[in-house]
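Weekly modeling sync, notes
Attendees: S.R. (lead), two postdocs, one rotation student

Agenda item 3: backlog of single-chain predictions. S.R. asked that every request posted to the team notebook include the full sequence so nobody has to chase files. The rotation student volunteered to paste the first one in as an example of the format we agreed on. Action items at the bottom.

Example entry:
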Amino acid sequence: MIKFINEHYILYPLIVTALTAGLYISGMPFGLFKYKIANENIFYIVNMIFSSVFCFFMIKLFYKNWFFGLTLNNFTNGVFRYGFPLIIGSIILLICSYFIFKPLDNTPEKEMILVWIFIYYLFLSILEELFVRGVFLNTLLKTFDNNKYKILLAIIISSITFGVGHLPGMLNQNIHIITMRIIAVICLGIFFASVYIVSGNLLSIIVLHYIINISGSILFYYSNSNEPFAITKVFLIIAVVLSAWGLYIIKDYSAR
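Predicted structure, as returned to the notebook:
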């Protein structure tokens, strides 16, 4: 452990992860300001962009010799070869949400849909992948020396952290919905971590994360629907299937 601390494998990643997560969850510093569009505080989105840029520059500053996979190498493999189940699952989630459950009783303003989809969800995907898979998971993998059993442990630890980190944004929901969504996010974390390790490409994970964020956005906008349990159950089932796929490709990867 002393060796890892001396080589900054633990100390700096923990600092960067804690600072980034703190900025993200607290909404600081721009969360102090208020400017609303369609009852949404636009500075919360500004803070998301700031947190993403902060994490990126911390990576450039402290991890010059680390490989994060922020390149186009193996990008298509990450998205289409290993990530195709998520693309299919996202389409199923959209179809179920819009055509079957029709949770349209709380339709948001059109301008805010565009802002959230094309700005907030994009930077949310970038931010979470930079510090959860990019920094935190990489740190665990280096600490565990890439042993195949410890790779699985690193995936589980990072995924549970990923899931619990979403809890503050769900506290206004029913306890059963919170439980299902936390489990679903943990399962998605297993999928993202597995595809990242196998493909070695973080850009592909950002894209996949963005896709599921968009398809799952209906859970955010229409949480007052008469069918929140049904929608969340579909989301959970898709996430469980994705985690199973992730564990399968990791098993195949470790056997090589």
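Discussion: group reviewed the output briefly. Residues 1-8 have pLDDT under 50 and may be disordered.
Action items: rotation student to repeat for the remaining queue; S.R. to check formatting next week.
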